[in-house]
Amino acid sequence: MIIAFFAAQALALPLLVERFDSAPVGWKERVASQTGGGPSSKYSVADGVISFTATPQTKKFLAFGKRVDLKGVEWLDVTAKLTATGVEGAAPGVVCGVFMRFDTGQVVATRDCAPRKDEAPHRRHVVVPAGARDMEVGVWLGTPGTLVVDDIVVESAPPDLKAVGRGRFQYHWLGNDGFREEQLEANDTRFAELAAFFGTPTSLKLDYWKYADAPTMEAFTGDMRSYVATDTAVHSLLRTDVRAMMAALSRGWGNPGPLFFEGLAVHLAGDWDGRDPRLSTRQAVNAGTASTLAALLDPAKFAAEPPERAYTYAGAFVSWLVANKGGDSVKACFGGVSVSATPAANLAALERALGAPLSKIEADFRASL
After folding, report:
1. How far apart are CA 122 and CA 124, in angstroms?
2. How far apart are CA 297 and CA 281, in angstroms?
3. What angle, rounded to 10 degrees, do the helices at 242-249 and 258-269 form?
4. Does residue 167 share a domain with residue 133?
5. Last residue of a domain, one of 156, 183, 199
6. Is the dihedral of CA 281, 286, 288, 292 positive or negative?
7. C or N terminus of the chain, fewer CB within 10 Å?
8. CA-to-CA distance for 207 and 224, rounded, in angstroms?
9. Do residues 237 and 311 share a domain?
């Protein structure tokens, strides 16, 4: 049985429509970010679009926006067309497109800062922060590159969301995309296992957001990935997503990269794509095709390895750690190894966490297979 709660969907109310077919009315320029004394980014409104440019020498990045009243508004439905080029390597959180800046201080961009061209309007659903009374809707290029934007439409339109609370979860989904009882039971069981492993406070509950496809998930989160996890919420394409729940509950442990994160996920699941991690790793070691811990510590090399070898090796290694050194050893690795550190720094951190040279750690692990 699919569990679903139905509610009437409210009509969309337009808050702002800007096609840039003429000089925008009520829009104002401001400095959105500045990195020192030097030239400003440039923008112009012509040919039915607004265009921004910035160079590597740009130090002052301008935004062009308009205030919008939010009285009585709970959800925003935002669409826009944009073309971004030359923005590779932008820092996380940099805006390259349309944004909403609420009077509470929160800033939400419609998309991440990456090269793209929207042939049709891109959509973003945004919940209005509690207490927000107005916001600035604007365009901002916060990094060197070129940005062209057209057809910005902002409406007050609550999405067709359903919700139900159960156990340690508050579930959310759209339309008829609900949950079966066995899926809810599986989530209850997995949460209990993960909470025991990570020492999760009994008071913690997770908001579990389920989406039908990646574009819909991006419209709500700004990320087109298989899952997104925060301290208190998971957003997923799956009704039972162990990796997403694990990402949320392990956040306080650290961000150690795929060797330990994916390895722990495989360990907790007990298999990888139906494969026994220990047996698969033993076969790869005997065949001389197995990777090494030193290589898998590097996220780029982990990603380049065939997944049936990388994931099973990582899972078998973490299972060996838990069995021989206890769960605290995995926690120490989570806290010491970092996805943003160099491979050399992570190698040193791993050896400190486990109290032995990597050569001995790997030799002992392989001998156990």
Report:
1. 7
2. 17
3. 120
4. no
5. 156
6. positive
7. N
8. 19
9. no
Q: Is the dihedral of CA 303, 305, 310, 313 positive or negative?
A: negative
Of the three residues 226, 249, 272, the one that is the final residue of a domain is 249
The residue type of 202 is: T
What is the total residue count of the chain?
Answer: 369
Nearest to 103 by CA among 126, 76, 142, 137: 137
- Based on the fold, state whether residues 83 and 148 are members of the same structural domain: yes
Question: CA 253, 254, 255 angle in degrees (round to 5)?
Answer: 140
Token look-up 């805006």 returns 95
> Do 197 and 189 form a contact (C-beta atoms < 8 A)?
no
Residue 364 sits in which domain range? 258-368
Integer Cα distance of 256 and 345 in angstroms: 12
Q: Is the pTM of this model over 0.90?
A: no
Name the domain count of the chain. Answer: 3
pLDDT in tens, 30-72: 999 999 889 999 999 999 999 999 999 999 999 999 999 999 9
- The CA distances from residue 271 to 33, 62, 189, 198, 331, in Å, are 48, 51, 17, 20, 21
CATH number for 35: 2.60.120.260
118 and 20, same structural domain? yes
Summarised one tens digit per residue, pLDDT across range 111-163 is 889 898 998 899 999 999 999 999 999 999 999 999 999 999 999 988 999 99
